[in-house]
Every structure is written in C-alpha cells, then in structure tokens.
Amino acid sequence: MTQLLENITRYQQRVNQQLSQHLKSTAPTSQKLTDAMTYGALLGGKRVRPFLVYAVGEMLGSPIEKLDPLACAIECIHAYSLIHDDLPAMDDDALRRGQKTCHVAFDEATAILAGDALQTLAFDIISTPIEGVSAKTQLKIVNMLAKASGESGMCGGQALDLEAENKQITLKSLEKIHSAKTGALIEVAVALGASSDETLAPEHQQQLQLFSHAIGLAFQVQDDILDIISDTKTLGKPQGSDVAHHKSTYPALLGLEQAIAKAQSLCQEALHALAQLPYNTQLLESFALYIIKRDR
Q1: 100, β-bridge pairs
Q2: Which domains occur in the chain, in start order?
Q3: Which of 50, 184, 260, 291 has minimal CB crowding within 10 Å?
Q4: How does pLDDT run across 201-239, given as a tens digit for each residue?
Q5: What is the sign of the dihedral through the CA atoms of 57, 61, 65 and 66?
Q6: Does pTM top 0.90 for this prediction?
Q7: Residue 138 and residue 143: Cα distance in Å, rounded?
Q8: Residue 285: which of 189, 214, 193, 199 has the closest Cα?
Q9: What is the DSSP string of 23-90?
Q10: What does the alpha-carbon distance between residue 108 and residue 89 come to, in Å, rounded to a whole number?
C-alpha cells in the first residue's frame, strides 16, 4: 500500500503541474473565467482517472510524457462534471473537497462557463498532436473520450440519476446509471492508458476493459457506502447528500452489509481480470483494493 500511495502522490503532482501549465498557457480573455477554471480543476481530489491513465500506460512501457495529455484531458472532463454536478439545478452542494464549490466561490453563471470551458480545453489538449501517437490512434482517443463524456456515457448517466430521484428503481437500473455516470470515465481512463501501446493484443485490451468495468462500479458502491458511514469533514462534501436528494443507492437497495459485499465482489472481479495479463499488475491490484477500503 505504501508504493500505491507514493504513486498516487506522484501522479497527482504530475497532472496538477501539467494542468496548471495548460491553464496558464494563453493570455486569458476573461481573468475571472480562467480563475474559476483553475479553481475547479486544481481544487484537490484523488485524481483517480489520471492515476489510471498513468498506471496502465507505464505498465505497458509508455513514456510518461506520452500519457500527460491523456491524463490532463480526462481530468478536465471530470472537473467540469463536478462543477456542473454541484450547481443548484443539479445537487446544489456548497462543499467540494472541503472547500466552497465553484458556483459558491464565484457565481452560478461563471461556474457554468468554467465547466463548459474545461470541457473544450480537454478536447483542445487531446486533439493537439502527441509525439509517438499516430493520427489514427489519436482520432480514436478523441472519439473514446467524447463517447464516455456525452449522452452515451457520463452525461447520460447523470440524466438517468436525476430522473431516478424520489423513485424506487431496480438494482439493474441502478447499475445502468452508475456504469454511465461514474463508470464510463473510469473505463475510458484505462482505455486511454492502454491506447498508448498501439501493439497491445486484443485479448489484453479485453481484460483491461473487464478490470475497469469492475472498479468503476466498485468505486460508486463505495461512494454510496461512505455517504452513510463517513462524515462531512472526512468526505470533503456534505455527508448524507444522497439520502437528502432521495437518490437510489446500493445500500438503500441491498442494505449496508450486502453493499459492502458487492464492493468486495467487484474488487475480486477486477483482480481476476488483472491476473490474466502478462504484465506487472501489482500497482493496479493495490489500487483495486484501495477503491473499496478508502474513507473518502
């Protein structure tokens, strides 16, 4: 676990430095908007998605410089989604990572624009030529990120989540929501890291996809569990917000004990997929375990 935490810190620092450079790379049209973008993108966080890009890519032997734009792009998408998720029209949260949410720190209109601009920055970064990546592969990368972010991925999942408020839904429906809302970006993070090796065997791509699908769901199950058993200070956001918004969650549908068992089962699925790969998967194995043991 020590090695995992060291790598999480290393990748956090790396992607924060890279993001900071992108946000400072041009003279701002609106300083307020740039400040809000920077605030939303560099507010903190575990950097789970960049971690997966870097960890998978380096496992496959790709140089870290080749992975930087992929990690930055997906974190820009994630940051924009959080800014919009916190808005009054969505979850109406005042805290994110222990600090004021973007619309509280600035204002609602600026927060909306900051989210929009971070989304377009993601595609600006990822569509700029990357040394060592062919044009064909780069176009595929752009397409993968677009699909994971849009109606068939994260945005579609958020829409389903909003529609499900104040309703009793099935476990199958809940998994559909979270496979899109949370899982899609986690799955594409792994796929982006894998895409850095254009010679990767299809069967190895498939095992990485199984791994990412399992940890994507496990991540959300653990989030649902923490919303019940943790506290606002530890989480850095309001504890109990799922209950307050009458959201369907894994503990609500399965009970807390069965939700914990579900997370553990998904972790085992992820570990089984990694065991089929002829690479040093120790870091990813540790991360799968971390997903269901974290406290925030």
Answers
A1: 95
A2: 2-293 (1.10.600.10)
A3: 260
A4: 999 999 999 999 999 999 999 989 998 886 666 555 565
A5: negative
A6: yes
A7: 9
A8: 214
A9: HTSS--S-HHHHHHHHHHHSS----HHHHHHHHHHHHTT--HHHHHHHHHHHHHHHHHHHHHHTSTTT
A10: 10
